[in-house]
Amino acid sequence: MRAKARDAGASGWLENLPRLVGDLCRDWGLRPGAAFGDATEAYVVSVTREDGTPAVLKILMPRRGAAFAAELTVLRLAAGEGCCRLYAYDVDRAALLLEHLGPSMSELNLPQPRRLEILTDLATALWRRTDADLPTALTRLAWQAAYIPRKWAELGKPCSRAAVDQALAAAASRGRAWDPRRAVLIHGDVHQWNALSVLAGSGATIGEPRAAHAAGTDPPNEPSLLGRRAACVDGDIPAGADSRNAGADRRDAGTDRRPAGLGGAAGLGGAAGLGGAAGLGGAAGFRLVDPDGLIAEPEADLGVLMREDPVELLDGDPWERARWLATRTGTDATAIWEWGLVERVATGLVLTVAGVQPIAAHMLAAADEVGRRS
């Protein structure tokens, strides 16, 4: 975090950090504990509230201003549903007081199929229509379409040209398919390191977040670089949703803000989803952290799950995961597949730059193999 702050020209913020932490602890009645050493974009420290509730104080560095606004918006809208709970926030000081959670899913050695089930259910718990001022899928696609070829060349072409072309074609396809009537709030980075376990009794003293101080239709099937199309699964192509609802940060009681087509037997309201007796299940034991915060078609969230666990993806037919995700959520398998093509290459390159190996190499190798099989 210190190196990134200096690189971002935030040395003054870094020098002032002890006083900033002290001021926030005084203003919010917090007793500071140990800092988290693995944070890279923020200063994160364990704290205890006046009533004894454990919490986490997160202060984002100045260059992350837009990210702070997006994260705050998502956490307020989620109100603890799928994401960590927000206790307090300070816009001027880019500070968040958050629920204290336990180990990440990545530390718990859950079988990959079970991880996929839980992460899918966590993602869908957040989906809702909103008029919040957040970046859209088009913003992400534009960035990915520019980043992929540039970084691929700069890194010495760490994956095949075919994988890059396939990712760019998929990005163009999802851009053409953009339909604001289907757009919902999504997390944008759902994976096992961003899913933390819920500690026993963590929800007992949670109240309303408070401000503190400052407080459509896809293009027709066409021969392309995207690979063979998914077999049609009954109910996996949602109908167009109503226009996005304006209004409150939180769901109104009894009001379903999910897009039409996501509430069927295989969707969010059935036993395989989040509303039935077999709904939340294991997902209730986890919450997502560090949301990117996008307004996008729901399949964009599921495309992230297509990029994750790349070794397991190749054990069988990669399309099977896309079809499984579509059936579980009542969404479109082809859209999920295309988002996966983009996310796999873009994130593989990002992780290569960051030196996160062997995960980066595995993602890019999976992109190559998917391209060969298509």
Automatic annotation (TrEMBL):
Biased composition regions of type Basic and acidic residues, renumbered to the chain:
247-259
Check the record and name the InterPro entries matching this protein: Kinase-like_dom_sf (IPR011009), NH2Glyco/OHUrea_AB-resist_kin (IPR006748)
Which residue stretches belong to region Disordered?
236-260
- The superkingdom of the source organism is Bacteria
Q: Which species?
A: Paractinoplanes toevensis
Q: Which SUPFAM superfamilies match?
A: Protein kinase-like (PK-like)
Name this protein carries in UniProt:
Streptomycin 6-kinase
Query: Which biological process, per GO, is one annotated for this protein?
Result: secondary metabolic process
Which GO MF terms does the UniProt record name? Answer: phosphotransferase activity, alcohol group as acceptor
Lineage, opening ranks: Bacteria, Bacillati, Actinomycetota, Actinomycetes, Micromonosporales
